[in-house]
Amino acid sequence: MLLLTSLGVLLAGMIFAVILIRVPRAGLFAAMAAIVVASVLCLIASGQVLLGGGGMASRVLSWPLPLGTATLAIDGLSAWFLVSISLLSIAVAVYSSGYMRGEIGHAAVPAFSALLCLLVASLIVLVCAGDVILFLIAWEMMTMTAFLLVNFHDQQDEVRHGAWMYLIATHLGTALFVLPMFAILVWQGGTQFAGFAAMLRSAEPRLWVVLFVLGLLGFGTKAGFMPMHVWLPNAHPVAPTPVSALLSGIVVKMGIYGLLRLLSWLPPLPIGCVALMLAMGIVSGVLGVLYALAQHDLKRLLAYHTVENIGIIGVGIGIGMLGQTMGYPLVAALGYAGALLHVLNHAMFKGLLFLSAGAVIQSVGTGQMDRLGGLAKKMPINAGLFLVAAVSICGLPPFNGFVSEWMIYGGLFSGATHWGASAAALSVMGLVSLAAMGGLALACFAKAFSVVFLGEPREPLGCLPPMSHLMTGAMMIPAILCIGIGVLPIVVVPLVAMATSSMVTLPTQQFGQALEMGMKLGAALTVFAVVFGVIVGALLLVRRKAGVAAALDTAPVLQPGPRATWGCGYTYPSSRIQYTSSSFAWSLVMNFRRLLWPAVHFNPPAGYFPAPGELATHTADVAEHDLFAPIFRGVAHLVQMFKTFSWSGEVPAFSSPRHGRVGPFRAVLEGFLAAVRRGNIQVRLTHIVVTLVVVFAVEFAMTHRSAVKRDASSPKIEKVTPKAEAGSLTSESMTTAMNTKGLKTMERSRP
Amino acid sequence: MIVLRILLTLIEIAVVLALPPMLISVILKTKAWFAGRDGPPWLQTYYELYKLIQKGVIYSHTTTWVFRAGPVVSLAALLTAATLIPVLSGWSWLVGFQGDLILVAYLFALGRMFTVLAAMDTGSSFEGMGAAREVTFGMMSEPALFLSLAVMAIATRSISLSQMFGPGMWIAWGSVGPAMLLVVGALLVVLLTECSRIPVDDPATHLELTMIHEVMVLDHSGPELAFIQYGAALKFLLLGSILLHVAIPLPGETWAYVVGPVIRLASLLGLAVVVGVIESGMARLRLNRVPLLLAGATVLSGLAVLLVLAKQ
């Protein structure tokens, strides 16, 4: 009932925004107030479910949909996502009512207000949909409204490019994977979600794998798993800031929601699927944060970082699945709970980061980090808020990111200590990559915060307009939650446990054990947060007692001369000698250049009377330029071939790789050829080894095949051993999973 | 037994708070002995901390509150970690819990984050350079550390430090000795990296271009510099304790009360001597060689994981 009321409120807000088109300010306020009211109603509704023992509140609407009736239902999982949606929507709505006032007169603010209401409404319907048709309608509505919102400043080229890319990528994902997946489900067991679990339990295991792979690819496109993430760093940065926050914080999570919903119906999957999930999480996480590190634009950096966090959530889901497959519910509970909590946490800190970055961009006019600097003095509150979010997103205690990452780590460690070699190896791989992600995220956000807010301005800033109070107030909400969840995790642990239990059926004893572990952790984290606070206080006291020259503390801050930073003997420093975002990240980017393939244009000053030199670096997305661009160019050529009629006679232009950039395939080939020409002994040896391996592999395959042919009882077995650690478990289902994914499989020869 | 345990805990707190500068003194004395010098007096490091505490602070006008928060937060993070890491006995002072090793690793990261931010706050290009190197090498030592922790967790079948460093470690050496040996090697590299010692960083160098940790703290003065120097020494003690609990396992609970603490104390001083010998025996690596060293540590610990898993 609350749900329907909140949808009604949103509809009213939308109508008001449209009616008040001549008074955009009033329309904006009405629509944003509607979002806040609706979100509060949703919070109450989901609170009832999460606190009231997870009882499912479902409501059948008697709408005549094509294949059945529409059902709205809230279980623990929906309620958890509803909490994330509501909390971030409140912040975004309040922020927008301050932020968009600057846009009135320049852009279509009434359309923005109406569309934002519609987007929130479609998100609410999506997570509460209890049948396939309603789910798909909401899914499509969300995609379309998000597309229109991204396209807000459509007079700019890059905005249109990003928005189109988003639309095409999401629709390809939906058409190729999500629709077939639901088609199979509907064909097997009707349109109601409630019946799927029982239906699938009696279905063939092969069907589970097919459904899982379709779901992973389809929902993964929406969530932004690599390599289907290419639309994300193009679409998110060009949207108006409140929309970016909502897109990165919540809309991509709908992909995660879809995946979790699917997993809640599926029985434990074969280990090949688990390996696939973990591999996707690991690749997205590590590459996402590496790309983020290489960016120069603040919002683009944040967008890539969303890919990383989706990767962390993916690792959490992967370890949860592994726990189910191995029959160890404690690990399953920890993994899924960590992933779910990270969904909420990421919504909070990424929302806050985007909102804070938007405030910077609105007042300074650029998001190019190398042109910013020293903003902490100009906008201290915003700097503090950005720092809170940055420390949270790095997963550092005592903030919320640590709690969810701890749960995932806990699952990985428990798995590694309890299982045999292959499953434990998967856990350890997750563990190492999570550690690497942590280190890289720290580097990334140390860079983002310090280049934008610390040091001296790299370009003169002038006088900045004060930030609107509405914007500051809006950012306080996620900031307080970041700290609150980090210091008092004991409050959220039972809630997330309730959400988890609605997803995976756990034996009561195991569930209690997991809950107890979480509660103990919560209590311990609170203790250590207090200890940390006490120590900080004591140290501050020591510093004060020890007589920090009080006069200096209160002296006017801008004194020339003796109080400049020590320049190591160089007496005429300028703000341009500071480390920039590129130079800060450069050593890491170069160490991982074989993953990132950065392009460097270096024109050094040379000769006795050198002309000014220049150095420019650019890191283009390998998946975009070397995987999808060739495919789409190929498709375009194909279409051209069959095209007999053209409306405009225009030849479509596709983004070609930037001039001077050497992609991985070309680089490897050229390097190899060059080495062959040089007559390098190592290359010759590699050549011989590779040839031998190929010969052996072919030989092995031939003999094995003839052996199989002789064995009449097994008609045809594919002999493909995946490269992963799970090599010993060559179940047929796993082979299918690996092949469908297109992972390069390898035939191994054993002499 | 309880009385003994409380007494031991009190002694341990006192040692953890008082010992760190002495370890630095031992390293300096060892290096001086190799160089044929007398070296500074044993208590010189304490005198220096005392002197710095007495002094006033000068802040560059470029800096903000982040610069002032840096040393305080870093030291507070290390002290919080100190309540979790068993040093002399085999248990944590306060509360050990399942998964506390993750909290320890992330507390170190919290300290690093704020040291780096304080360095970037000065606007100095040298400090920026140090900060960039710190995050690079810090990130690269992280996988080695977590792989080592994973080996210990699998070998002892527990994920809390106080259980891990109990008698389980003795049994682990018996069953998967080679793996533990590899872990000791990896952890030694992690220790040298995290504590900015040769061959990764040279604390005694005089050229800012080649420094990592020292260049990041150039602008700090007075009590804040004292916090940083004390924090560096404390970090050495804490990581050293983790390394030594792995390297020198003790059989049985009873050892933990009398003989154990004495062995731990002696081995900490011994570790300082070892680091002194390493510093006297080799030069700092070229900066582009350091990633190879850290990758080597990661490979060592990865190999240890394979050994442990193969044993299962």
Model description:
- The complex is a heterodimer of chains A (751) and B (312).
- Chain A is mainly alpha-helical and 751 residues long.
- Chain A is built from 28 helices and four strands.
- In chain A, the strands form two sheets. In chain A, strands 1-2 form a two-stranded antiparallel ribbon. Chain A has a two-stranded antiparallel ribbon with strand order 3-4.
- Chain A is globular.
- The relative contact order of chain A is 0.08.
- Chain B has 312 residues and is mainly alpha-helical.
- Chain B is 71% helix and 0% strand.
- Chain B contains twelve helices and no strands.
- Chain B has helices at residues 2-18, 20-34, 44-54, 65-82, 100-121, 125-156, 161-164, 168-194, 213-216, 222-247, 259-281, 290-311.
- Chain B is globular and about 55 Å long.
- The two termini of chain B are 36 Å apart.
- The mean pLDDT of chain B is 90.
- The interface between A and B is large, with 89 and 81 residues.
Distance between the termini of chain B: 36 Å
Oligomer: heterodimer
Strand content of chain A: under 5%
Given the helix and strand composition of chain A, which structural class is it? Answer: mainly alpha
Chain pair forming the biggest interface: A-B, 89 and 81 residues
**What is the overall silhouette of chain A?**
globular
**Could you tell me the strand content of chain B as a percent range?**
under 5%
Keywords:
heterodimer; A: 751 residues; mainly alpha; two-stranded antiparallel sheet; two-stranded antiparallel ribbon; 28 helices; 4 strands; 69% helix; 3% strand; globular; disordered C terminus; B: 312 residues; 12 helices; 71% helix
Give me a quick take on this structure.
The complex is a heterodimer of chains A (751) and B (312). Chain A has 751 residues and is mainly alpha-helical.
List the helices and strands and how they pair.
The complex is a heterodimer of chains A (751) and B (312).
Chain A lengths: L1 H18 L4 H28 L5 E9 L2 E7 L1 H24 L9 H20 L3 H19 L6 H33 L6 H6 L3 H19 L8 H4 L5 H11 L1 H13 L5 H24 L3 H28 L3 H36 L10 H4 L1 H14 L6 H19 L2 H33 L15 H19 L1 H13 L6 H38 L4 H5 L26 H11 L1 H4 L2 E5 L10 E5 L3 H21 L21 H15 L2 H30 L21 H10 L10
Antiparallel strand pairs in A: 1-2, 3-4
Helix pairs in contact in A: 1-2, 1-4, 2-3, 2-4, 3-4, 3-10, 3-14, 3-19, 3-20, 4-5, 5-6, 5-10, 6-8, 8-11, 8-28, 10-14, 11-13, 12-13, 12-18, 12-28, 13-14, 13-17, 13-18, 14-16, 14-17, 14-19, 14-20, 14-21, 16-18, 16-19, 17-18, 17-19, 19-20, 20-21
Chain B lengths: L1 H17 L1 H15 L9 H11 L10 H18 L17 H22 L3 H32 L4 H4 L3 H27 L18 H4 L5 H26 L11 H23 L8 H22 L1
